[in-house]
Amino acid sequence: MSIDVSGTEGYAENARSLIEQWQDISFAEHHEPILHLVPTPTSCILDVGAGIGTDAAAFAALGHTVVAVEPVDALRIAGIRQHPSPRIEWLDDSLPDLAILQSRRKEFDFVMLSAVWMHLDEHERRRAMPNVSALLRDGAMLVLSLRHGPVPKGRRMFDVSAGETIQLANAHGLRTALNVQTQSVQRGNRCMGVTWSRLAFSKDGARS
Ligand SMILES: C[S@@+](CC[C@H](N)C(=O)[O-])C[C@H]1O[C@@H](n2cnc3c(N)ncnc32)[C@H](O)[C@@H]1O
User: Fold this and answer.
1) Is residue 35 part of a domain?
2) Rg (CA), the chain
3) What is the mean pLDDT of residues 53-76?
4) pTM of the model
5) How many domains are there within the chain?
6) Ligand 1: which atom is nearest the Cα of residue 94?
7) How far is the CA of 9 from the centre of ligand 1 (A)?
8) I want to staple 109 with a disulfide (CB 3.0 to 4.6 A). Which of 11, 43, 69, 161 is the partner?
9) Is residue 34 part of a domain?
10) How many CA atoms within 13 Å lie on the side-chain side of 106?
């Protein structure tokens, strides 16, 4: 029920135009900085805040099985319609608790939090990180991106630094594997000065 989920403000109201806008973004272009981290062997992938499932569909096309978590009904339903792959399971669940997923006690090889983390406030981020970490099996990879710059009207977004996110992840058994800053691939956002932090962490029990 997206109306109650913190972080989703502005998505249901603008779902139609966002769905249209997101059609033009290719997985390879969007995720160029982290493509080398995507597993090659067939893996279990979790995509949290999956939107209309562009990334989930790309993972499924590579042979992976994907759980796509999306709390906004309009986006999840559009994703189910656009990507009717038997390799994708859609779930109405949400950060910070991911309560349905946690109750399954399943672990993943690769977890994607693309353009989602900065929708959580500090308290929610602190609650979410151990929950996300618990969903990664040893040796698994967490990939996330943080948006910096002007906040679109009606959205709930915080300026979350890469430094804070690295500290929080490291405190929960996740070792930093990637930290790069990029421009936005979307022309409109690039013109507005939107930049991104692209981060990746591996779960190997070590703390950095
Ligand atoms: C900018 S979109 C990113 C969509 C997709 N991951 C991508 O990179 O194209 C942010 C997504 O995060 C979802 N979201 C916002 N708050 C969330 C929360 N608390 N738990 C899970 N997903 C959330 C929104 O519904 C939306 O689909």
Assistant:
1) no
2) 16
3) 97
4) 0.95
5) 1
6) 20
7) 10
8) 43
9) no
10) 16
Q: What is the pLDDT of residues 96-131, one digit of tens each?
A: 999 999 999 999 999 999 999 999 999 999 999 999
Per the CB < 8 A criterion, the answer to whether 9 and 73 are in contact is no
Per-residue confidence (pLDDT) for residue 205, from 0 to 100: 62
According to DSSP, the residues that pair with 67 across neighbouring strands are: 46, 89
Structural domain contains residue 29: no
Which of 8, 17, 48 most suits a substitution to test ligand 1, by most atoms within 8 Å of the C-beta? 8
Contact 98, 76 (CB under 8 A): no
What pLDDT is stored for residue 208 in this prediction?
40
Domain that holds residue 88: 2-23+41-203
- Between 187 and 48, the more confident residue is 48
Domain assignment present for 130: yes
**Which residue CA neighbors atom 21 of ligand 1 most closely?**
94
Residue whose CA lies nearest to ligand 1 atom number 4: 51
Task: Give residue 46's pLDDT band: very low, low, confident or very high (50, 70, 90).
Answer: very high
CATH of the domain at 112: 3.40.50.150
Closest-lying ligand 1 atom to the alpha carbon of residue 22: 9
Q: Is 7's C-beta closer than 6 angstroms to any atom of ligand 1? A: yes
Residue closest via CA to ligand 1's atom 3 equals: 115
The pLDDT assigned to 204 comes to 85
Q: Determine how β-strand 195-203 pairs with β-strand 174-183.
A: antiparallel
Q: Which two tokens stand for residue 125?
A: 């981020």
**d(CA 128, ligand 1 centre) in Å:** 14
Q: Which residue has the tokens 């972080």?
A: 7
